Structures are given as C-alpha cells and as structure tokens.
Amino acid sequence: MALTKINHVSEADHDLVTAAVAAAERDTDGEIVTVIAAQSNDYDDVALVWASVVAFVAMSVIALFPDFYQGLYDRLTGGWGHDLTANQWLGTVIAVGVLKWIGIWLILLWRPLRLALTPRAIKAQRVRARAIGLFKVGTEAKTVGRTGVLLYVSLREHRADIVADEAIAAKVAPAVWGEAMAALIERIRAGEPGAGMAEAVKRMGVVLAEHVPKRDENPNELPDRLIEI
User: Fold this and answer.
1) Which of 46, 67, 166, 211 has its CA 20 to 30 A from that of 174?
2) 96, 116, 136 - which closes a domain
C-alpha cells in the first residue's frame, strides 16, 4: 500500500526553509530542526467536557423549573398525557441530558468547531507538549555538543514553539527567541508559512552564532530539510 504524502506547504516553501537552515548553521555549532504539523492534538477531552457541561445545564434547568416543563409536556400531549410519577420525571430529565450529551458530541465531531471552542491556553499547552515530545525523539542529545534546537509550527492552532537542547538552553533564555517567533507568526498570518519559518530560522541563526559560534570540527548532525507530520 502506498503511503499518502503529507503536504502542508509547497515544494518552494520546503526549498526556502532548507536553504535558510543551511545558511543559519554556517556561523554556529547549533543545529536547527524545523517541523510543521497540521494540528498538535485532537482535543477529544475538550469535546467531552463541552458535552457534559451542556447536558448538566440542560438537566439543571429542567430541575429548577419543573412546572414550566410539565406544562410543556402537557401541551405536547394535547392534555391527554398522564401525570408523571417522580421516578418517571427523573427518568425524563436523565434522558434529556443523555440526548443533549450525544447531540453535542456529534456536533463536535466537526473538528474545526471543536478547535474553535478550545481555550487558547489549552491549545498553547498542547502545542508546547507536542513540540517537547518531538524534540525528545528527534533532536535532544542527537548532537555531540547538545546543540540541537527545534522550531515547531502547528498550523490549525496558529501556534509555534522553540525547544533547545541542554547546551543552548543554558545560554539562551526562552524570551530571547521572541523576535524569531514574532517574525514567524506575522508571515504565517499573511498566508506565508514557508517564508515565516525561513525568517524565524534566520533570526535563530543570529542568536545561535552569538552564543554557540562555529567550530571547524563540528559536523552537520541533524537534517536541514523541513519535516512535515
């Protein structure tokens, strides 16, 4: 079976980012890895929370205004319905809650809406967690001098992160990458993810050249190409 190729950006974007990484690494022992993903998490738990909250609110409203809903029941049955016992009323309330839960869960199977209803803080946490996970697998301790640094972009969350290996993290505070991140986000918002990543890599190279300058004997240990997942 042939594998489907992932294409979040164009071949021109790939070439642009690869060239930017190669240029940025000329003056530093730092090794820049670039990764771009469509989305960092499915947010299934967020959908569960929304469904549960809506179901709970629906049941609570019925419990708080029983006369109104009993009257609604009478109107729906044309006044021919029998009076519900306490157990039957409780069962009706639970049934409404279950139906509400199922309905909201089905609606939130549409992932763009699920993502839109996910708080920004949660999205930022999940993107950061994904970036760290990818860093540990593909970048951390993969260079002799522990000088790897990962630039990670998650398109649907409109989030990005930079994670650095031990030798770089000890010299460069996270806030120092702010200029690179700002340049990246500005270009991505303009619909130019490749150009944004290339500009971020360029600015990361300036920081790395200052704190981890190039030594003649240091080989190129990590791929320069843009990785899509």
Assistant:
1) 46
2) 116
